[in-house]
Design a protein that fits this description.
The complex is a heterodimer of chains A (215) and B (235). With 215 residues, chain A is mainly alpha-helical. Helices cover 69% and strands 3% of the residues of chain A. A two-stranded antiparallel ribbon of chain A has the order 1-2. In chain A, β1 and β2 form a beta hairpin. With 235 residues, chain B is mostly helical. Helices cover 80% and strands 0% of the residues of chain B. Chain B has nine helices and no strands. Chain B has helices at 3-13, 19-31, 33-104, 120-123, 129-136, 140-164, 169-196, 200-211, 218-231. In chain B, α2 (19-31) crosses α3, α6 packs antiparallel against α7 and α8 (200-211) crosses α9. The longest helix of chain B is centred in the N-terminal third of the chain and has 72 residues, at 33-104. Chain B starts with a helix and ends with a helix.
């Protein structure tokens, strides 16, 4: 079926997508998003059950992770072939990779409410970093930390994420943030909250980083 | 991680420091590994936040695109299904058309096109559009029934007028003239209904009566009467 799709010009090859996205081709990223979303909508039911909101959230997180894998060149194209860590051929499909990411994203999301006990989830998450390790083609500690932070951001409490986004991404002043979020009575309270968010993010990232090193 | 370092780190990363402050801070970084570590962590966090939010913004945009494309895809599917269904229906009707025609029309109806007379241009409008519709639809029996009913009504109207306007002759005349016009119109419609039912004989009798009567239908009746007679049409 994929061959027919490619022949009919309906879907590009994974290598074309990877190459395009790595070269910051927005059209390619948009197209990959479309096919991944279609695939995800058809297949997610075999991995987990979730309402539409959660399903979309999982898709977004998974797609972002996939996108990052490509941009960070953990999967790349060489001589028209997909390759992963250690220049080894990457035999999987991007959609399959997306679904395996989605599986872990789901486990992370339901961590608090799941009937699966914490040890199992911890094991699975540890496995995730080992699996991801296969894709990581860099040994740069800073890069690994960045990836872990990126992952932790997706699981961060929404309030914290909002404060950090407004402050660091939108570059808003604490005064402006205070007017937009009513919760904080003083600038110092907001500053403390922001600091706590960063500290928690750092603690989570460090914990994962150490478990990754010990794996 | 120290709270007191964070303000300077933020100002440094968000370019909110003067050049002097920046140089002093960089010196401090080189001297203080703890500050360096906190700066590196914040830098990574800011980088991750920026990358993530940029991508989320793009995803939001693409999500709209996806919904639109999916809807379009569904619409196209719907158009295809409707198209095929329409084609099927048209084919079905083309094949079964003669039989259906027979079913809808009166059993003895013949191919006879009702044209709501050239006379319409003279009389402007018809009071019996329902009957005309029946004739156009080739429901001649129903049309004939309606005509008979209307004729009965006109008959009783003319009787009533006779008693009501006995002292107002002018008004009586006007009303009677109207009734006669309507009677003529009904007669004309009856001719069509009869011709549709293949009852040419009776139609000719009515036409003969109409063509000898002054009024809007005199000329059309005469011409139709002669046409039927001379051509020997198979009505």
């Amino acid at each position: 079926m994929p061959v027919i799709n490619i022949l009919l010009g309906r879907k590009k090859s994974d290598a074309a997508f990877v190459e395009g996205i790595y070269n910051r081709d927005e059209k390619m990223a948009r197209e990959l998003h479309y096919y991944c979303k279609q695939y995800f909508d058809q297949k997610y039911g075999s991995i987990f059950f979730a309402d539409n909101k959660r399903k979309d959230e999982i898709f977004h997180e998974s797609f972002l992770a996939l996108w990052k894998i490509i941009v960070d060149r953990k999967v790349y194209v060489e001589d028209g072939e997909l390759r992963g860590r250690g220049n080894k051929p990457f035999s999987g499909k991007l959609t399959t990779l997306l679904m395996s990411i989605a599986k872990y994203k789901y486990l992370e999301l339901v961590r608090d409410k799941s009937h699966i006990n914490d040890i199992d989830i911890d094991e699975l998450l540890k496995k995730k970093y080992n699996e991801n390790n296969d894709l990581i083609s860099t040994d740069d500690t800073d890069d690994i930390m960045y990836n872990i932070i990126d992952d932790c951001l997706s699981n961060m409490p929404k309030g914290c994420y909002k404060i950090l986004t407004m402050f660091y991404y939108e570059e808003k002043s604490l005064e402006t943030i205070m007017t937009e979020i009513d919760t904080y009575e003083s600038k110092n309270a907001l500053k403390t909250a922001k600091y706590k968010c960063l500290t928690n993010l750092r603690n989570s990232a460090n914990a994962i980083y150490h478990s990754y090193l010990n794996a | 991680m120290k709270f007191e370092y964070q303000d300077d780190i933020d100002d440094y990363l968000l370019n909110r420091m003067s050049e002097e402050q920046q140089l002093a801070f960089e010196k401090e970084i080189n001297r203080n590994p703890e500050l360096q570590e906190q700066l590196d962590f914040t830098k990574n966090s800011v980088r991750a936040l920026k990358s993530r939010n940029d991508k989320l913004a793009a995803l939001k945009e693409w999500e709209k695109d996806y919904v639109w494309k999916e809807q379009r895809h569904k619409h196209i599917q719907l158009y295809w299904i409707s198209g095929v269904a329409a084609l099927f229906i048209v084919t079905f009707f083309i094949i079964l058309k003669p039989n259906i025609k027979e079913d809808l029309r009166d059993p003895n109806a013949v191919e006879f096109e009702f044209t709501p007379f050239d006379v319409n241009t003279i009389k402007n409008s018809s009071d019996y559009s329902d009957i005309e519709s029946l004739l156009k639809g080739k429901s001649y029996k129903k049309a004939l029934e309606s005509i008979e009913k209307e004729m009965q009504l006109l008959k009783s109207d003319s009787t009533n007028i006779g008693s009501k306007f006995v002292f107002n002759y002018e008004e009586y005349q006007t009303k009677m003239l109207n009734i006669r016009k309507k009677q003529d119109e009904l007669c004309w419609l009856k001719v069509y209904a009869l011709l549709g039912l293949n009852n040419t004989k009776q139609a000719l009798l009515i036409l003969d009566e109409l063509r000898h009567r002054d009024g809007l239908y005199q000329i059309p009746s005469d011409s139709l009467y002669n046409l039927l007679k001379s051509d020997g049409m198979n009505y």
